Amino acid sequence: MTDSSDRRQGIQSVGIGLRVLDVLASLDGAAALGVIAQASDLSASQAHRYLVSLIAAGMARQDSITGRYELGAGALRLGLAALGRMDSFREAAVALTDYVRETGRTIQMAALGPDGPIVVRWIMGTPPISTSLTVGARLPLLSSATGHVFLAFRPPSHTVEMVTRETTPQFQSIDVEGMRQRVRKLGYSAVQGDLIPGLRATAVPIFDLQGEVVFSATVLATDVFKSEHDEAARLRLIEVCDQITAQTGGVRPTV
């Protein structure tokens, strides 16, 4: 066998080994050899050889009682290192800036602060939208599309004090749990003039690896510029936010 043939064989082996590792990562917990082999498109004997090598490298491990395989400590270290090098805010800002260039819509990014959602970035579209909200402004939880997203996709313990603070006589009739479940089912929240008259807002979550919303992206529009393209802009924003979630190692929670 020539040197070039050796290199091709070696590269192919690495590729197959990474495929087996990716299967281990995608499965819901430890799995039997046959399941891994089938998902990797390998025979059982081939899959076993690669698993032995992955175990030797610390990338996989085998349960001594059940014989099932799962990710090892080495794979965990790699995953954590990759996450540690990933700036989710930067990734989100870049992708959402591209969205604004593509659609002309205005985007507001927010994160959850100790007293409620905080505007962390404005990306102005065309025509520009002028509001009293600026970077650093705090948004209400119960009467903004952005707040609804954090209410729905963060544990209740993270928002209970905010809900209590905002449950004034004006909002006592709000079905908070119903709102939470509705937004979780839809996957986004849309309001029309609830916070600022004449301003329409649709907020979409961006998730972390625990399935909790880390940022929200809210597309804004005014009644003056009502458009039949609103639905397309919303669907495209959901697609972009899901891509950001995937690129930064996040997971959309199951409803």
From TrEMBL:
SMART domains: HTH_ICLR. PROSITE patterns: HTH_ICLR, ICLR_ED. Residues 74-250 form the IclR-ED domain. Pfam families: HTH_IclR, IclR_C. The keyword Lipoprotein does not apply. The keyword DNA-binding applies. Keywords: DNA-binding, Transcription, Transcription regulation. Gene3D superfamilies: 3.30.450.40, Winged helix-like DNA-binding domain superfamily/Winged helix DNA-binding domain (1.10.10.10). Residues 11-73 form the HTH iclR-type domain. This is IclR family transcriptional regulator. It comes from Brevundimonas terrae.
